[in-house]
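User: What would this chain look like folded?
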Amino acid sequence: MELKRTISPDLIKKAGAEAHFSERLSSLPERGPVKLCLNGRDIPVVTLRQVHSSTVRIIEHTRVYDGDALISLSGSWIGVKTADCVPVLGASVVSRAVFAIHAGWRGLIKRIIPATVNTLKKHGISPDALVIAVGPHICPRHYPVGDEVKKRFRKIYPEDVLHGDYLNLSRCVYYDLVESGVREDAITFIDKCTFECPEYASHRREGRTEFRQINFIGRQEPVND
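Assistant: Here's the prediction, encoded as structure tokens.
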């Protein structure tokens, strides 16, 4: 599958890794490897069957890829698919580890981001050694939620994640990362709304759609730990 354009944040490059946020694509598989071609380079990306959970998988330790966060301790290419939810890509500056998180509202409530950071910590990777890029997702202007969802978020997050009926996913991700020990200056947000920008797939704008973005990260020459 050929990618014509991606956003590749400089912050991740400073860790010796490479992250890409694609525009809308069709025919992405539900799970398993995705063969991508970017600028003439073939990139095999491992992906998940995403289930809006708190499940974190380490690709060197399992062949089961149901969940909502992937970690590669060796820097292999991994990714998540989105169409309004938040893609979070990160890398360690002191090891080869990289990770990819799919964070929708259900995953945020189930604490997928703290679960990922805690899993990294169990493998000796400190939160203050991470750099993180948060990719295009739906902005609060277009993300109203119901009373039950608002109630659940108020139990976990500060009041400013909600403005009336509208939920700010960026603020939720920010709070989760900082409270998990990630440095504020090690987080970058790509300021693009999937609902407003036609180059991105959006469930809220289009209804159920076969289109998705793929958001992936890795190191050019992965090695085995």
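The chain has a mean pLDDT of 94. If you want, I can go into more detail on any region.
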